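Protein modeling request. Please complete all fields; requests missing the sequence field cannot be processed.
Requester role: graduate student
Desired output: 3D structure, C-alpha cell encoding
Chains: 1
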Amino acid sequence: MTTHATAAPPTADPAPDAEALRIVAQLRARNPKADPLTHLPDVHPLKIPRHVAIIMDGNGRWARGQGLPRVMGHARGAEGVRAIIEQCGRLGVEVLTLYSFSSENWKRPPEEIRALMGLYVQYLSAEAPRFMEENLRFRQIGRREGLPPEVLDAVDRLTEMTSGNTAGTLCLAVNYGSRAEIADAVRRIARDAAQGRLDPGAITEDLISEHLYTAGLPDPDLLIRTAGEMRVSNYLLWQISYAELHVTEVLWPDFGVAELNEAIRAYSRRTRKFGGLERPPA
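Delivered output (282 residues):
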C-alpha cells in the first residue's frame, strides 16, 4: 500500500520579542508611520540603522545606456529619491543623507551644472508640501559660496518651513566636500582659540563634530554606494569612521526599495565592534 506524507502546515513567523516591540514603540513615538516589523520583518528592529548615507552614482551611465542625454539620468535619479525617503520612514531610519553635488562636480560641463541646479530648485519646490505632510525636516550640508541665489533661496525657504518637523531628516550634501568641511571646522576652532574663547587643551573629538556641517546629527551607521565604485569620494570622511559599507553594482536610477532593503539586510548581519572584541555568547 502506498502512503502519502501529509505536508506540514507552514510555520508562522515567530511573534516579535519584547525588545522588538519596545524599539518599534520608540520609533513610532518619533514617526507614527514607522513599522519595520511589517516592511522588513526578517530584520530585527534593533538592527535598523539610525542614519543611512548614500553616494548616488551612475546617473550618467544609466542615461548613456538608454541613449539619453546625461541630464535625463539625473532627472530619473531625482525621481527615485521619494521612494527611498518613504521606505526609510517606514523602516524607522531617522536620518537619510544623500550625496547630491560634490565640490568637485563644478568641473563638469556648464550646461550640465545649470541643469542640475535647475533640477534641485524644482525638487525643493515640488516636494515642500510632502515634507510637511510627512513631518520631515530638510537640511543641506556643504558650502553655500558658489551656489546660485535661486538655489540658496529655495534651500532657505524649505529649511525654515520644516525646521519644527520631527519624524525624520533628509540631509542633502550639495557643494560638499569632506576635506573642505573639516578645514572649515578647524578654522572656526582656531579662531575661537586665537580670540581666547577656547582653551586648545579642551579640543576633543566631540568638539570637532560640533563644528562640522552635520552638527547635531548622528554619525551614519550605513554608507551605501551605487554603481559599483569602491571609493568614498571625499564624503563624510570624519562621520563614517565606523560606518558599515555596502557597494552595489546597481546604478542609482535603478536603485529602489528592494535594493535598499537588501543593503539593510546586509548591514543587519554585520557585527559592529567599534574597535573592541566581540562578546562571547552568554
